[in-house]
Amino acid sequence: MISTLKEFEQAKIKGYTASINTIASMLDVSKKTAETYTAGVERIEIAETLFHKIKHTEQQASRTYYNEYEVVRHLVEQGHLRVFYGDAREVYSRQATDGTEKELEAKYLIDNLFTVYMLLKVSKRLHQIIIEDLGYEFKKFDDDMRAIYKDKDGNAEYESDIVDKQLEVKYRRMIKRSFYFKFKIGKRSIKYFQSMRTVKAHNMDERIKEMIENAERGRLLTETMSKEEQKQ
Description:
By secondary structure, the protein is of the alpha+beta class. 51% of the residues lie in helices and 17% in strands. The strands form three sheets. The chain has a four-stranded antiparallel beta sheet with strand order 5-4-9-10.
């Protein structure tokens, strides 16, 4: 239990800065689902008196804080987070590609956890990609906490009025024709990372190139060993 401002500041230095709402937003799941996924993850609890102090200074004061990085590690280890990639090899690797989506193994995700974490942080769900691409901006939540967006002329619309099944299919095909990572959280939530501009803005170009090339090298080695075993 954290009860002093000094302890709280030390905890933040160690990375304990995310509330359960922050985690839910990063994963694009409900708060209840986020609580289920984070069961067993180390966290810090804030004493009642300290909470009343920090809620005047913290943008999103919470009674419980998590380390996002460790949450992602836990999600991978528990099988709640799976990561796939597709034609990214055409961008970075000299290996030939058949365009088939491939899954990165859990051990490999752990070995490259910082990159996985950073990519997940900036990934977006399909509807969000579509809405932003069409020029809409978030305006406010209504009384039922449904998001309302506005276009360049100020016209307000709900997400369901902007995105239909036809647009979903169109954009999913567009994404899968080029560079992308797909994050599958649980059974339903899916987020995509497919922006070369974002890669360069975060100086992650070489890191992602190395990650993909090593994954392909390991995959080819595994396939070769498997073929040799079959021959024997």
